[in-house]
Amino acid sequence: MSSIFRRKDTFLKLILGKTYQNPQKIFIHLPTSINQRPFSTQSPKKFPEYEMPSVTWGILQKNKEKLVSRVIISDYLKSIGIVTNELEDQELPSTVEIMRERVEFLQNIGLTIDDINEYPLMLGYSVRKNVIPVLTYLEKIGIQRSSLGEFVKRYPQCLNASVVVELVPVVNFLRGLDVEKLDIGYVLMKYPELLGFKLEGTMSTSVAYLVSIGVNPRDIGPMVTQYPYLLGMRVGTMIKPFVDYLLSLGLPKKILARMLEKRAYLLGYDLEQTVKVNVNCLLSFGIRREALPSVIAQYPQILGLPLKAKLSSQQYFFKLKLKIDTDGFARVIERMPQIVSLQQHAILKPVEFLLGRGFSADDVAKMIIKCPQLVTVQVGFMKNGYYFFKSDMGRPMEELVDFPDYFTYSLELRIKPRYQRLQSKGIKCSLAWFLNCSDQRFEERLYGDYIVPESSGPSFCMGGKLEMAGSDNVSEEEESDDDSLYRRTVSL
């Protein structure tokens, strides 16, 4: 115990400059000296608050002022319709004038009281230190001043972000992905939450995975511009399961990569609730499982449509108006899945033209099953081809039933020039022989000593390669199987 008193004595000697013989009397002297401070001419007993130390008195007085100011500000916010529950632990300005300035500033950029109530914490951000620097930078990178209010409404947390530490690195990351400078504002307007992402997190991993499955790194920028939400998707729970499922259907990885490059929004389709449901729907309507990869490659959007309703409507229409049964309808969808989205009145126009030229309903049904693209051809285009076929070529109509693709070729660019070449050579052949081939193949056929047998178009087997019938006779530059399917898909 005596050692404790000695340490206290040494400490007080250092602080007060003198030694106390009896340390226990220290606690008697200090209040006495404080009571003798001349705070007022009034008797101290009349004002007991002056008995407190001066430092403590100042702190309590300041807290009282803050409390009064907070009550005034809270009453002001309630008077204009702002709910203050979330502001109880928020640091607020010292005066109601500053708060009024913040509210008016937010209203001037386009926010309403309801918008502020969605995220009232924005009222705790300083206009000069936080809000103005952020909005100035957003306008600098391409967001229109008239759209700043909408941007803040969708992502109000940006108002408390550091321009240098948080915003600039995200913009530089987007530029590094080859997002055009003029598109930065457009990308952020579509997905403002990008400004809150960490560069080493989801954004980097999603890009790395897409490149790993064959997406061209130079196409990442256009993909992000088209569908910036992919940067916020987790690979393990969203992107990879989607990719793995399509690969399991037999879609080649290279084709899938090309699909995603052109239509990045496919990644946004819900795998369980939409994609798998639509695939099962296609199977239930008679589409063969081995034809699924070709259907998806030709029309990837089919994975995200309300497919059951569309297929039911079109199937009923084809059976009622075109006399095509359910099996024939399934073959039509396999060859041209875009049929599910075509307007029925547009489909009827070429059908009515063919019926008006003497084709029977059964012949028209056969023609559509063989070549579904027939229903998308403009009637004027069909008229020109039909009159040339009847007047100049003088062929029987049965040839058109056997090869309805004739109506899909350009009269001036393909049919006339090739027919005239055949006439000059005195060659007689079917429509498919001289029309259903490339220019180089046509030249080889024209000057060859034999006629290549007619063959069907490209075939695609689930899990296998694309096989081009008669490919042994092609002398043009070889291209990969996946490239052939992709080129054919794009042309469709």
UniProtKB/TrEMBL annotation:
The keyword Manganese does not apply. Keywords: Chloroplast, Plastid, Transcription, Transcription regulation, Transcription termination, Transit peptide. GO terms for cellular component: chloroplast. It holds the Pfam family mTERF. GO terms for molecular function: nucleic acid binding. InterPro entries: MTERF, MTERF_sf. Its main location: plastid. One of its GO terms (biological process) is developmental process. It is found in: Plastid, Chloroplast. Belongs to the mTERF family. This is Transcription termination factor MTERF4, chloroplastic. The gene is LOC104238634.
